[in-house]
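Query structure, 423 tokens:
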């Protein structure tokens, strides 16, 4: 489905974005492992997280819709052998975290997904999980899905992660809940810490010493309600939309402001963005607050490579901002973008070109010369964040977004919400 956006002169109002995808995946998984019933409040109900709910049902958890929420009855640490292949759809987080969980279970399970997910690297989780003792087979020696897992009998490992990836960290920590001896993960750079926060919420074993995270075998634990904040990564598109559209003033409410996610705010501020935010609740769990963004004259800059893991899903949104900034924006340290839902580095470069923006793409960097954006047609390349970022990039000039339905993977009401804020 094509979505046609006419030239937009102003965006005004307040918006509550859907629930956080990362927190919803973790909330569902841990509630499914707990003993008894709990409610997951305001989860994301979109392509990726519905895949997670469905997979967990096949593993024995009861997950029911309760209006905007999910009511979950957990299995008490022991998952059931699934009767069929677990379809992870488009969701890398689901496949990698579930591989960790299943590594600890005495069941046989096969994980597969859509064409994009079957191209994404799985060796980064199969390698440490095999070291822990899980039996995992997959295409190309376990580097690609489908993955066949027979878990159980795990031992703890000390694992120095070669890439900064919250999914790898989480897979190993989840497996560590079923291992003899301690499991330790060392991160090369800080990544989103939702798993650590969720472990604390459920009282699961966790120690953090700098960049080392340690867990150990868990005892059965009680179910506990969890409130999911709005997804910062979804809010990011509206923040950038307000900055680049004339006469705009948007406030995003109930947004997760976990500091391991908000690198984009630091960069935008440095680019001259008129933007403010505050944490208002949830200090012990996930910090939540508001963000206000107004039309701004942005300046290009060279992004600090250390910030990239703290804004790994916001590079498409940053590219949209850079297209409208004066001067050049250089974004380094982007190797991981090549293995997201699409090759995002190429997808960004291609769409900037479609909108007439001069761009150079290296193996792991982008250089964008901002200031001259034309209307045009943009292509999501089967990637939700590319669809949304380039819808935003083309707002002031007008744009046609091909295959706009890809936004449903993480933000089903994105285009309608954008429409509703038009001044
Ligand atoms: C996620 C971690 C990130 C991110 C993804 C969600 C998570 O992936 O890009 O959208 O929930 O742990 P990597 O761990 O591969 O960087």
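Result returned for the query:
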């Amino acid at each position: 489905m094509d979505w046609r956006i006419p030239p937009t002169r102003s965006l005004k109002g307040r918006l509550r974005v859907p629930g956080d995808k990362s927190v919803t995946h973790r909330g569902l998984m841990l509630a499914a492992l707990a003993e008894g019933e709990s409610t997951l409040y305001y989860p994301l109900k979109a392509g990726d997280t519905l895949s997670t709910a469905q997979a967990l049902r096949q593993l024995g958890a009861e997950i029911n819709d309760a209006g905007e929420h999910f009511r979950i009855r957990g299995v008490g640490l022991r998952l059931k052998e699934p009767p069929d292949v677990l379809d992870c759809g488009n969701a890398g987080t689901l496949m990698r975290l579930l591989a960790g969980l299943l590594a600890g279970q005495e069941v046989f399970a096969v994980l597969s997904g859509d064409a994009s997910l079957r191209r994404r690297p799985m060796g980064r989780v199969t390698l440490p999980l095999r070291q822990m003792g899980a039996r995992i087979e997959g295409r190309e020696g376990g580097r690609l899905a489908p993955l066949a897992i027979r878990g159980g009998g795990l031992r703890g490992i000390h694992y120095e992660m070669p890439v900064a990836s919250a999914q790898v960290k989480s897979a190993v920590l989840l497996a560590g809940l079923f291992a003899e001896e301690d499991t330790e993960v060392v991160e090369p750079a800080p990544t989103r810490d939702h798993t650590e926060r969720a472990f604390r919420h459920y009282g699961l074993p966790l120690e953090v010493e700098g960049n080392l995270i340690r867990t150990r075998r868990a005892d059965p634990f009680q179910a506990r309600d969890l409130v999911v904040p709005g997804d910062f990564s979804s809010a990011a598109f509206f923040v950038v939309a307000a900055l680049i559209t004339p006469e705009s003033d948007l406030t995003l409410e109930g947004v997760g402001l976990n500091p391991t996610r908000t690198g984009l705010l630091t960069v935008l501020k440095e680019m001259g963005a008129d933007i403010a935010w505050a944490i208002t609740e949830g200090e012990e769990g996930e910090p939540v607050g508001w963000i206000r963004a107004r039309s701004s004259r942005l300046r290009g800059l060279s992004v600090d490579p250390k910030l990239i893991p703290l804004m790994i899903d916001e590079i498409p949104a940053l590219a949209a901002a850079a297209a409208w900034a004066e001067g050049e924006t250089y974004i380094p340290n982007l190797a991981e973008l090549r293995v997201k839902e699409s090759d995002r580095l190429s997808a960004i470069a291609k769409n900037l070109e479609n909108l007439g923006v001069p761009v150079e793409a290296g193996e792991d960097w982008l250089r964008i010369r901002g200031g001259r954006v034309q209307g045009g047609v943009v292509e999501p390349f089967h990637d939700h964040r590319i669809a949304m970022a380039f819808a935003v990039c083309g707002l002031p000039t007008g744009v046609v977004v091909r295959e706009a339905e890809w936004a449903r993977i993480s933000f089903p009401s994105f285009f309608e919400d954008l429409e509703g804020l038009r001044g």
